[in-house]
């Protein structure tokens, strides 16, 4: 049995073929929107004024398997095939009879539906017929086509059909990805794999077919089979590495508009997109077309093509395992830099490893070279810079310890929706409703040392009874009353001020200055809202004990590691903030200088 075949075929090459749609597929169901979209896309390509001689418009894959009597069983793509057939039938019947009498000598391809034996006859003589659901949709598609061409003149219709049916050696044809199954694979299994959950062929699957189909020529020699097995094994090894979330989120950032954006089920496709420089918004099979036209259509050795891909991936893997490059490159990717640009820079002939590291530090410096002291959290532009600076400080702190193997978890940073958190609460933020209850639960936990269960407050009452300090007991009772019964605004304000005095909240830092800000995952951030400093510290330490990732610099802030004095453990004031700011400046100086 010969190998599967993957090629591009023009619509013109399909004209005399015979297709069979088996019973395991649903009937024709394209809507007006889908038919119109196809017409619009072909029309846009037909009207494009500057086209290279090799340019063509490509439809999505047609997956087929040969049958007896020179017919093709359509495994995937029958909706597109039927629609193209309806469009051609309309143009031939309604507009172009005279001009096509000589030029249009081929038969239009036939399509027989196993569940609708009369379908081919109906397609040959389309008319209004709602006797079955397939005919209803076919007639609707014909009417949609009629309406679409209504404002087009004879020449425009002729241009459209000329593009749709252009030959390989003339004009710029419309093509399909022709995937011919010739092995012993189970057809129902292939159909299920392609269609359950509406998952079509991906660029990765199509490119893999190119590699494995080309690497195993017809002589079936032992050497050729070895090449095929080697590529398949190395492909799987690369994919397994990319499925490691630590590696994947080091090189990929779903929020970076300079990277190809896609839900990569097969992640090696991302590497292909980078190699072929796929822009955002490009059509789905852009990368596959580029490989087919630029690599596989010029008789290049498949081993050489694959070697280039391996080298590209191995460079990224080398960066991942080099602790310094991991952090420098990881920061740049996480803050919007182009991975492709970094890779090209590293591959330039004059670039040594030391020069590349110096280049990365210089690029980092460009991103954070600003007047740090005057950044304001309330300004959206400044907020972006604050986030970058705090991220870099955490990364630099880890990197500065040469004896440690700790690595910054870019997967957590990119998936846990991190926030910028105020170290000392914003005095102007007023708590209301459920926020008051959440705040009161955290403060009460601080006093009693017991997590508050709102459905069982008896234990809290027992712990409050054990408090010996009069002020503490009074505050705890007020908090419990707030949780159980709610209190007026005046009562809440008085309770808040009483607790504030207990925690000696004086000499405040500038609330929205970077010296009063730290990075934290949004789950932890939301948990304590406008809590006081020691309560925030309590919650952060508790979350870290439970396995949540807390950035090292955020821990340092709440442990007051940057502060020169350790006698004010219960609060965060301007002196602490000034010391923290100096630590930030010191970390950034390595990159700015």
Structure description:
A 6-stranded mixed β-sheet has the order 1-6-3-4-2-5. It has a two-stranded antiparallel sheet with strand order 7-8. Strand 3 (57-66) and strand 4 (72-76) form a beta hairpin. The chain has 27 helices and 8 strands. Helices cover 56% and strands 8% of the residues. The protein folds into 3 domains: 5-200, no CATH class; 202-367, no CATH class; 420-592, no CATH class. The protein is elongated. The chain has helices at residues 11-14, 32-47, 78-94, 97-103, 119-124, 133-149, 154-164, 187-195, 203-215, 222-242, 245-251, 268-275, 286-296, 302-321, 323-334, 339-347, 353-368, 380-400, 410-415, 433-448, 458-465, 470-485, 489-502, 522-528, 533-545, 552-558, 574-592, and strands at 5-10, 18-21, 57-66, 72-76, 110-113, 174-181, 418-422, 517-521. The chain is of the alpha/beta class and 593 residues long.
The strand order across the widest sheet is 1-6-3-4-2-5
- When the domains are counted, the total is 3
How much helical structure, as a percent, in the residues? Answer: 55-70%
Note the total helix count.
27
Ranges with pLDDT <50 over ≥5 residues?
none
């Amino acid at each position: 049995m010969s190998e599967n075949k993957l090629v591009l075929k023009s619509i013109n090459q399909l004209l005399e073929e015979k297709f069979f749609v088996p019973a395991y597929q649903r009937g024709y169901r394209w809507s007006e929107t889908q038919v119109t979209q196809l017409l619009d896309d072909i029309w846009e390509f037909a009207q494009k004024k500057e086209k290279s001689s090799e340019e063509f418009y490509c439809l999505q894959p047609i997956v087929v398997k040969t049958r007896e009597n020179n017919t093709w069983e359509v495994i995937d793509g029958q909706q597109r095939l039927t629609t193209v057939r309806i469009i051609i039938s309309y143009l031939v019947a309604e507009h172009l009879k005279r001009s096509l009498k000589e030029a249009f000598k081929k038969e239009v391809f036939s399509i027989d539906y196993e569940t609708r034996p009369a379908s081919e006859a109906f397609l040959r003589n389309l008319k209004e017929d709602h006797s079955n659901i397939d005919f209803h949709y076919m007639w609707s598609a014909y009417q949609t086509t009629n309406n679409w061409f209504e404002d087009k003149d004879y020449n425009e219709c002729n241009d459209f059909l000329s593009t749709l049916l252009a030959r390989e050696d003339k004009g710029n044809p419309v093509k399909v990805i022709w995937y011919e199954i010739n092995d012993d694979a189970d057809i129902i299994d292939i159909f299920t794999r392609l269609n359950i959950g509406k998952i079509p062929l991906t660029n990765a699957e199509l490119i893999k077919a190119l590699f494995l189909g080309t690497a195993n020529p017809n002589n079936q020699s032992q050497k050729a089979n070895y090449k095929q097995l080697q590529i398949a094994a190395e492909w799987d090894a690369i994919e397994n590495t990319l499925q490691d979330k630590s590696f994947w989120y080091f090189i990929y950032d779903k929020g970076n508009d300079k990277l190809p954006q896609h839900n990569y089920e097969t992640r090696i496709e991302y590497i292909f997109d980078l190699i072929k420089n796929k822009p955002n918004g490009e059509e789905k099979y852009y990368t596959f077309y580029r490989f087919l036209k630029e690599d596989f259509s010029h008789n290049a050795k498949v081993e050489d093509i694959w070697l280039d891909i391996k080298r590209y991936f191995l460079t990224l893997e080398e960066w991942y395992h080099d602790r310094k490059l991991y952090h420098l490159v990881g920061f740049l990717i996480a803050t919007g830099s182009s991975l492709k640009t970094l890779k090209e820079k590293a591959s330039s002939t004059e670039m040594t490893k030391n020069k590349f590291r110096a280049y990365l530090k210089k690029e980092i410096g460009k991103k954070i070279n600003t007047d740090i002291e005057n950044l304001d959290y309330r300004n959206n532009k400044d907020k972006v810079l604050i986030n970058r600076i705090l991220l870099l400080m955490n990364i630099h702190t880890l990197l500065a310890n040469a004896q440690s193997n700790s690595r910054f978890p870019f997967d957590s940073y990119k998936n846990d929706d991190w926030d910028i958190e105020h170290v000392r609460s914003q005095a102007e933020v007023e708590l209301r409703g459920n926020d008051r209850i959440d705040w009161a639960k955290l403060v009460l936990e601080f006093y009693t040392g017991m997590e508050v269960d709102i459905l069982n407050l008896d234990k809290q009452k027992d712990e409050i009874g054990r408090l010996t300090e009069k002020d503490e007991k009074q505050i705890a009772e007020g908090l419990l009353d707030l949780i159980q019964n709610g209190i007026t605004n005046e009562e809440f304000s008085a309770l808040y001020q009483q607790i504030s005095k207990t925690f000696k909240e004086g000499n405040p830092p500038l609330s929205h200055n970077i010296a009063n800000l730290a990075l934290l995952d949004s789950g932890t951030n939301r948990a304590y809202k406008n809590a006081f400093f020691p309560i925030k510290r309590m919650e952060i330490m508790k979350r870290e004990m439970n396995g949540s990732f807390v950035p090292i610099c955020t821990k340092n802030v709440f442990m007051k590691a940057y502060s020169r004095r350790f006698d004010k453990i219960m609060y965060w004031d301007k002196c602490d903030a000034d010391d923290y700011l100096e630590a930030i400046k010191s970390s950034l100086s390595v990159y700015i200088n």
